[in-house]
Amino acid sequence: MDSKAAYASLVRDLNSFEFTTNYHPCKLLLIGDEAFPVLVSTNGQVLTAASCYGKGRMVVVSHEGILKDSKFSQFLRNAAEWLKPSPEALVGVHPHLDSLSQLLLGAGTKVQAGAELSSSLGVYCMDAYDSTQAKDLVGFVKRGGGLLIGGQAWHWASQHGKEKVLFEFPGNRVTSVAGVYITGSEGETGTFSVSKEMPRMPLITHWASSN
Which of 91, 80, 36, 2 is nearest to 201 (CA)? Predict the structure, then answer.
């Protein structure tokens, strides 16, 4: 995968990302060669990332609120287009994310609202709090599907223990195969400029961001 071209597609027509205090993102941890940051905060925290796994692609955002927020509509449209295995592919949206369906439909994207995961979909959009279909989701991406997934793990960590997040948090049972982990550490809020060049982060910084 050409990560520079992928990054350019994901941030097309974007100047900034606005993370307000309405919801607190978490830091994302990236490992391996396929995962790359899409948005890095002022303090070097990865808040949005993308990756490839098998024949498919994945975009991970650090709070499910991003998937419902019209401020992110351009990014969400870009993500849906980049994730599609073909231009005519159908985008399925989980019932919990009806507002995302409306955002994508308003942009002319072919959407199946209230969708369950199925082979008829080219892209699936969901939050990161249910692992019951983890194996099916991993297989969906591996076969060439696209996955847009969002969530934060700091609340889960407060209930189950921060040390368990990387391997037991529901969303990580899916995103980890592509080298992206949702961590239990709160991320920075504010308005962050979009870099013209793909942000570069050394691996040691990735690991440090989970602490």
Answer: 36
- Angle, CA of 142, 123 and 56, to the nearest 5°: 25
Task: DSSP letter for 122, please.
Answer: S
The DSSP code for 117 is: P
d(CA 146, CA 58): 6
Alpha-carbon span 89 to 124, nearest angstrom: 11
* Residue whose pair of structure tokens reads 């609120």 in the numeric block: 65
Q: Whole-angstrom distance between the N-terminal and C-terminal Cα of the chain?
A: 29
User: 3-state secondary structure string, 42-78?
Assistant: CCCCEEEEEEEECCEEEEEECCHHHHHCHHHHHHHHH
Supply the pTM of this predicted model.
0.93
Report how far residue 139's alpha carbon sits from residue 95's, in angstroms, rounded to the nearest whole number.
21
Tens digit of each residue's pLDDT (9 = 90 or more) over 139-195: 999 999 999 999 999 999 999 998 999 999 999 999 999 999 999 999 999 999 998
Let me know: does 209 contact 203? Beta carbons within 8 Å: no
What does the CA dihedral 60, 61, 63, 64 come to, rounded to 10 degrees?
-70
Calpha distance 62→49 (Å, rounded): 9
**pLDDT tens column, 47-79:** 999 999 999 999 999 999 999 999 999 999 999
